[in-house]
Design brief:
It is a multi-pass membrane protein. Part of the tripartite ATP-independent periplasmic (TRAP) transport system. It is found in: Cell inner membrane. The chain has one domain. It is 75% helix and 0% strand. α1 runs antiparallel to α2, α1 packs antiparallel against α5 and α4 packs antiparallel against α5. It is elongated, with a radius of gyration of 20 Å.
Length: 170
C-alpha cells in the first residue's frame, strides 16, 4: 500500500510538470504563430486549464516532500510532546480542509457534466474535462493529508517533516 501511495504522489508531481511543459509549448506556438500570421485558437483557455491542473496536481507531491510553507520558527520551540499534539491538531484541520476542497471540486465536475457547461473561448470545451484534473489533484492532497495524520497518530514522523531538519541546517 505504501508503494502505491508513493506512486500516486510521484505521478501527481509528474503530471504537474507535464502541465507546465504543455503551457510552455502553447505559449511558444502562440509566439511562432504571431510571427507567421496565424493564431492558435483558445490557446489562453488551454494554458489556463493546464495551469489549474498543474497547481492542483502539484499539491500532494509538494505536501509529501515538505515543500509547503510552514512556520517552523514557533513550532521548533515546542517540546516533543507539545509538538506532536500541535502537529496532530494541524493535520486534523488539514484533513478537514482538504476533504472540503476535494468534495467541492468533485461536485463542481459533476455539476458541469450534468448542466453541460462549456468554455466561452473560440473552441468550446465541456468544462468537466479540464475540471477533472483539479478534482483528482484535490483528492490526492486529501490522501496525502490523511496519510500524514495516520503516520502521526501511529507515532511515526510524517513524510513532510523528514526534510525539515535538513532544510534548517542549510
Amino acid at each position: 500500500m505504501t508503494s502505491l501511495k508513493t506512486k500516486v504522489y510521484q505521478l501527481s508531481g509528474w503530471l504537474s510538470g507535464a502541465c507546465i511543459v504543455a503551457i510552455t509549448i502553447l505559449l511558444l506556438l502562440q509566439i511562432i504563430g504571431r510571427m507567421f500570421g496565424f493564431i492558435v485558437p483558445s490557446a489562453e483557455d488551454f494554458a489556463g486549464f493546464a495551469l489549474a491542473a498543474s497547481t492542483f496536481f502539484g499539491l500532494a507531491y509538494t505536501f509529501r516532500e515538505g515543500g509547503h510553507i510552514r512556520v517552523t520558527l514557533v513550532i521548533q520551540r515546542f517540546g516533543r510532546i507539545a509538538r506532536q499534539w500541535q502537529e496532530r491538531g494541524v493535520l486534523v484541520l488539514a484533513v478537514l480542509l482538504s476533504a472540503a476542497i476535494a468534495y467541492a471540486c468533485c461536485f463542481m465536475v459533476y455539476e458541469s457534466y450534468i448542466y453541460e457547461e462549456v468554455s466561452y473561448g473560440y473552441v468550446p470545451v465541456p468544462l468537466w474535462i479540464p475540471q477533472v484534473p483539479v478534482a483528482l489533484g484535490a483528492s490526492a492532497l486529501l490522501l496525502a493529508t490523511c496519510d500524514a495524520l495516520w503516520q502521526s497518530l501511529n507515532g511515526q514522523v510524517p513524510d513532510y517533516m523528514k526534510y525539515e531538519d535538513e532544510l534548517g541546517e542549510g
